[in-house]
Amino acid sequence: MQNIYNFSAGPAMLPKVVLQQAQEELCDWHGTGMSVMEMSHRDKDFTAIREKTEHTLRELLAIPKHYHVLFLSGGATSQFAMVPMNLLGNKKKAAYIHSGQWSKKAMEEAARYAAVDVLAQVEQRNGIHHLPNINDLPVTDEHAYFYYTDNETISGMQFHYLPQTGNVPLVSDMTSSILSKPLDIERYGLIYASAQKNLGHAGVTVVIVRDDCVKPVQEYTPTMFRYQIHIDNQSCYNTPPTYAWYFLGLMLDWVKQQGGVSVMQQQCQQKTKRLYELLDNHDFYQSPIAPADRSHLNVPFTLAKPVLEGAFLEQAKQAGLVGLTGHRSVGGMRASIYLGMPEAGVKKLVEFMQNFAEKNK
Amino acid sequence: MQNIYNFSAGPAMLPKVVLQQAQEELCDWHGTGMSVMEMSHRDKDFTAIREKTEHTLRELLAIPKHYHVLFLSGGATSQFAMVPMNLLGNKKKAAYIHSGQWSKKAMEEAARYAAVDVLAQVEQRNGIHHLPNINDLPVTDEHAYFYYTDNETISGMQFHYLPQTGNVPLVSDMTSSILSKPLDIERYGLIYASAQKNLGHAGVTVVIVRDDCVKPVQEYTPTMFRYQIHIDNQSCYNTPPTYAWYFLGLMLDWVKQQGGVSVMQQQCQQKTKRLYELLDNHDFYQSPIAPADRSHLNVPFTLAKPVLEGAFLEQAKQAGLVGLTGHRSVGGMRASIYLGMPEAGVKKLVEFMQNFAEKNK
Questions:
Q1: pLDDT in tens, B11-37
Q2: Fewer beta carbons under 10 A from the terminal one: N or C of chain A?
Q3: Residues of A in contact with B43 (CB under 8 A)
Q4: What is the tens place of the pLDDT at every residue in A278-313?
Q5: Is the pTM of this model over 0.90?
Q6: Which of B80, B201, B204, B327 is best to mutate for the A interface (most A CBs within 10 A)?
């Protein structure tokens, strides 16, 4: 059977060796005679799994002690509400960057709880999308935090620098970019990422938060939406999504074995570079994103002859290249290239695209 | 290697054949060359999985069309808030039965949003716990709903009848008892159950709700806590916990193959009967629960000589009988016997207990 390369935006392709390890251990974890799925979350075996997972994440991202690491349920969409609910404190305003659909969703949710100040937004010039400059913006002490989306998976745009926000805590949605580059954690107040792109499978969300950023909440905040509750209970206030948490640990071990996040960064850059070169050098394809703002994880593109899109997707599928349909809101094509996508998959995609262009020019 | 029988209260023992099927399919689901973990939740393969899962659950529990079936994240603890947030509407009061620690947690969370009327509570007489009679209580139109916990896992108490609540919607936490007996769904307004006892592994929660029970919510209600959002999006507003959902589907198929919920009910009664008989016929052991109120899923018990508890647990473990420690809040021992516990496990436990009593009388 041919290899399938899955370019979905998430849930997404996972490293084969990680899946194989999970498969091997599924019915009997380390000779316990039990599946991880069957273990009590308060049992010593699962405690060891979760402690190791946190330890490895702290090691990979060099997370200092005064940052809490939480493993929560509810996905990034829950964080859209949890961030304002827990970080506003006595303040009424929060600063947001509108860089695409995910930041827009985050802003809309935050508006239930805060006055949302949109300090900058994505721009379109001559059909090309540009991210705004997010330095030198009017961030003030009135803002409880400064929120931006590191990587927009739908449009395929990414900030390649960290904004200066003074004393205002920087909050970043890194769902699609966590582990794809080293981070200077102390520059952030809070980072979160749901798992189904770079951290395993859907069902668990990592939150990394500096201890002084967590403020008292309003009475209407559900218990499950209170960071402090999860901090006080090592993310085990209720039964956490144990299997997704365990699988996340396997992914972290794999990243460590590959050489850590610097190696991941090189690989991500190398994989997408190949694809961007094709888009720039071939009239048959276009990238709708300004070169400086292109994502190292999601590469959207269009065909010069849009009528061929159906044929492109169909023939790609026959070649084992799946999940290339662009997001339903923007159309076109998109190749999502997370940590689990091997270089061979990108190479095969590039070759396929070259051949397809030749045959249809 | 000897079989391990895991009596944990949840996450809990799962049927071996279900785990084996998951193991077999983990790297390649039905020849797609992909793991279910890697599938986009909007992909046709995963859509087929989730539609089949809902269909099977509707079939097993005979759920009528005017009931929605949701597959959510966040566990039962999220439902403690979601129930009042979504069911109160214009009303201010809700009726609760205080039958144990889970109902207490539900009441405490509801008190953030509603005036909680505790209509009845658990009683202790001569060291024996009794459930209150929950019929003929002063339920009125002022109550938005009537809430009770079908089975209290910690104390091991279960209601074996449905209360009459007139037009007031009946809400039941069935986390530990769903699929263990047939249900007359039309008697309920809402039922919920997180997965890690009878429905698979932790990370997904089933909500079954009659369409007219879902009311407009307050503005502060997070998007993820709005039933209507999940109803409108077939539980795919955001990326759902796809793998836990899939695994739940495997569990449902297994229940169906076993003969459905009536067969499950017989098995649950048979398994716990064996254990209760031992407790009642042996001075060495005690059940702290009144016979009429005993759970068919969680069997707590104490030793006449509490000093032997450590030896009991240690020797049980050596015999492959694990997870028997009582909840940290009540002490003693507890055997949780969900659908995945084979009769052989209970038989072995009973034999072990008889021998242990003989040796230590």
A1: 999 999 999 999 999 999 999 999 999
A2: N
A3: 8, 323
A4: 999 999 999 999 999 999 999 999 999 999 999 999
A5: yes
A6: B201
